[in-house]
Amino acid sequence: MSESNIKLTELLITVVSRMLRDLNHVAVGASSPIPGAAALLASGLGKGSPKVTILGSKSVNSFTDGGKELFDCAGQGRIDAFFLGGGQIDGDANVNLVGIGDYPHMDVRFPGSYGSAYLYYVVPKVILFREEHTSRTLVQKVDFISAPGKTEKNIYRPGGPHSLVTSRCVFMWEKKAQCFSLHSLHPGETLQTIRKNTGFDYIEPKKVINTLEPTEQEKKLIHGDIGKMIAEVYPSFASSRLAVDS
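The chain above was modelled as a monomer; its predicted structure follows.
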């Protein structure tokens, strides 16, 4: 793993972790090493707050009934943040976890929606995370809506999109405008590179900040205690992207 990729991993973990401050309970689903590490970092800096639940973990998981208990907990309002990704994400914050092409005869199949639509409706802060930032993944319109970003006003929905974090930038979801707004640029990115690699339209404010880079304390935790904890569930990730032995 190159030094630049390690630095990007550090950046993404810290960017997400800062969105989780002052929360009570953050849950992390499958195939989410960077969100998982970010949640652990937020908890480590917050001296145990927020509480973190990582599905698949034995040490960072108080659930005894897996996904069922996750859904119950979310429905009761006891999860403050969750993460969703997808093969495609569009400008309406729709997520596609099913596949590419015309359903049901799709050219490419993804893992499936599982409980994404339900969690998107009930968890107050859903952070969309997709490391690959190209017009192939961030599209004008997803081929299949696994979890919708928008709903009609007469539908009860306490949850919904909060932001979209990629390898290039951070978008924030604007509730009033019902679209994404460019918030910050990661090192090496420009307004032009974001526009070129994004398939959907978004608000470009007059002032776009640079993404804050991790502090020395955050880096030390990421490559130390946090890296060792996330290695339990994601040993290859911890070894290759955090230089931590499992």
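The chain has one domain: 3-87+115-133+148-241.
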